[in-house]
Target: Septum formation family protein
Amino acid sequence: MRTRLVMAGAFIGALAVLSGSMLFSWPVSVEGTVDPAAQEAAEAFDSPSGTCLDWPHDKPQNMRRVSCEQPHTFEVTNNVEIGGKYGPNSPPPAEQEWQKIVTERCTAEAAEYLGGTLDPFGKYTAGALKPSAEQWRNGDRRLRCGLQRVTPSGERLLPTTGAAAEQDQSNVHEPGTCFALVDGGVGDPVPCEEFHAYEVVAVVDLSKTFDPKTYPSEAAQREKLVDLCPPETNKYTGNADLNALELSLYSDTLKKESWLAGSYRVNCKVGAREPNGQLRPIQGSVEAAPLPPSTASSAPPPSKPGG
Model:
């Protein structure tokens, strides 16, 4: 018997990003005997709201449903029919139009799914799985909206754990996470042994210092973080002398929109800057035997991912 499956396959075209939204296309059709992996991927692609999906970054064809308590890449918020001008004989939207549709149709749904508010600067962004060309020809006009965490480059997704509605949306990272230095800016997570822009050394909760009902200005946050970050950093580094290592301690701050969305946590991080403010590449973790920045700075920064 011949079985027709639409499975999660290789990307057709590049990832498209608009206003923090990421749009995927999974358009591989397979004919032949039933392949368990293909069946699993097909079922995952058509999952209901509340389903969490995962796939390896380099093997998207291995998409599968997982418990939201496990690390996952995508959480389905809802399936929407775009309909309207996209009738039975209409061509599929161009990529820019798809991006607009995702922003218009998925962002509000994501906020509702999260209980009313999506932190625009938080760890989650709205995205979607769109019909493949073949699915479109067969009349599929559904957009599978969901939530994911996008890396700074916008080229990858980071796994998250736990149902999104039950999570703090603060855009924080585990201590020991290092971020690449790309063209003078911050790139994606990399091993700390590689040249990087900064290392997250602690996460602090500002709601323990400020009244969660009243937004503290960023200036007030910075003033308080001068006291909050050093003790936590000392725990992580074993009281390392950052000045002797030509490193500095920095911290993030929260926008009002984030605070109102219930995001209260920020990163404390270690990095280095030139006198002109330009980030300088560093290498090694401050948690264990870091290399002196004076040595690291003589080497070139890593090339841009995919470049």
